[in-house]
DNA sequence: CGCCCCGTTGACTCTCGTCAACAGACGTGG
DNA sequence: CCACGTCTGTTGACGAGAGTCAACGGGGCG
């Protein structure tokens, strides 16, 4: 062995064995309370995913590559982004446990996806899913509703980037992340300042300064950079609408 | 009469008559070369739309309203936007002839839609469409693909707003509009400077100054504010990537 | 142990926003 | 027909918010 496994090889291996096992041996089967098991959708057990893993900072797919697979995050976190030729980068979304990513219009990815942290995913072939969609209105409706949800997120981000100040952007972002982590108000950010900056259309320096400012205002407390405790009422007051 | 017709009343009127006629009497039937006729999709003649008209600056639906209808532009132009409580506005899209808008996630609109100019649309009830989608995989797939196309546009806008300068934003916008009008390089903008500014996350003054700057650089020529002739090679060079 | 990366902070710059004035187009009504 | 007000678009002067460049501390990893 020694050569790095690819999604394709993992898929071939999975098909030659029954039952399905993770290539990393951590095949507990059902994901982290997402209620999906290894199926694409909760009520669609015939589209099974193959477990796969990516290391921190590893690329999952690149812009322009053939969109052969789609992915569901089981554990860890992934970012999708686009880059301009001069290196400016815009992250269009973070995918945490449970979220599905990799669907694009057309046959190639128009984003790059990378693992923020060591990440376990389920991989699904795109073709069978699309074939299933053309036969099953139910599958197609689920895909539609997923796309619509993503669309709403993208448009919220549009408003954030077009019309909000640095402070409002960061506050909204933190409230959003808190919500995705259960809304306890305390969590560890899985992404770096650079990732946050490239998501919010800012620079790392501005993000850092804005963190300090929010802390001065008593809207949050930092313990060691990534670990955050929010004062949610004050943060929401910053976001206001 | 004298009371303003609503989509609901137009629909009721349409159903009491056969064949279908526009409430404004301009019922040439098939739309402007979009190839759709009055059907929702080209190959889906059973979902028929009712012609309806809106005056310049008239609201079609508001954020938070019940999403009872969806719309296809026959002639004219429409903008979708969101507003913050302090009045800051972000336009998330312009809908020109042929484009379908008004689909949202959930039962209420999360945007406001307004006619930029006098506009003729076809109105479709949302419920029957959704019912059709749950029965017909083909309809559902069309809806999915439409949502995915919108998603790509929204993410392109995200990159524009997050990482591009005023000049790049305006140049990209003009190239985009030119493309939608057939790519001749000469057209009349259907929207005001304010609309452009609110789409590009800028102010009207910056838009105006950037127009002047692009004109100085020989990237376009203005004849009377709205009428534009692009020097497409130079504009694309500004956009670069 | 040392290097590198991440995060923070300071000083300065610059793009874009704000405030203001003005010109031209348009519609209305005297 | 012209005076008037309004709306759109342009331009100038100025200011503020975010970007750039640079230095530095701390922690993790080889």
Automatic annotation (TrEMBL), chains A, B:
The keyword Transcription applies. It holds the Pfam family cNMP_binding. This is Helix-turn-helix domain-containing protein. PROSITE patterns: CNMP_BINDING_3, HTH_CRP_1, HTH_CRP_2. Residues 1-29 are annotated as: Disordered. Residues 54-102 form the Cyclic nucleotide-binding domain. Residues 164-234 form the HTH crp-type domain. It comes from Methylorubrum rhodesianum. Keywords: DNA-binding, Transcription, Transcription regulation. It comes from the Bacteria.
């Amino acid at each position: 062995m020694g050569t790095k496994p690819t999604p394709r090889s993992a898929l071939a291996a999975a098909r030659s064995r029954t039952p399905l096992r993770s290539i990393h041996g951590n095949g507990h089967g059902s994901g982290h309370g997402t209620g999906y098991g290894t199926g694409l959708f909760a009520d669609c057990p015939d589209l099974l995913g193959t477990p796969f893993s990516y290391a921190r900072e590893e690329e999952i797919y690149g812009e322009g590559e053939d969109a052969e697979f789609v992915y569901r995050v089981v554990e860890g976190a992934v970012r999708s982004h686009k880059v301009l030729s001069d290196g400016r980068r815009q992250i269009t979304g973070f995918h945490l446990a449970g979220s599905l990513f990799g669907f694009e219009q057309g046959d190639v990815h128009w984003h790059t996806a990378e693992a923020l942290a060591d990440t376990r995913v389920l991989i699904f072939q795109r073709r069978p899913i699309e074939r299933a969609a053309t036969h099953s209105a139910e599958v197609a409706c689920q895909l539609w509703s997923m796309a619509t949800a993503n669309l709403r997120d993208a448009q919220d981000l549009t408003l954030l980037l077009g019309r909000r100040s640095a402070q409002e952007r960061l506050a909204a972002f933190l409230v959003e992340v808190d919500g995705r982590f259960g809304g306890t108000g305390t969590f560890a950010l899985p992404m770096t300042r650079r990732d946050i900056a490239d998501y919010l259309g800012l620079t790392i320096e501005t993000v850092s300064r804005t963190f300090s400012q929010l802390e001065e205002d008593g809207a949050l407390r930092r313990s060691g950079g990534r670990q955050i405790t929010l004062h949610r009422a004050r943060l929401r007051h910053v976001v206001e609408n």
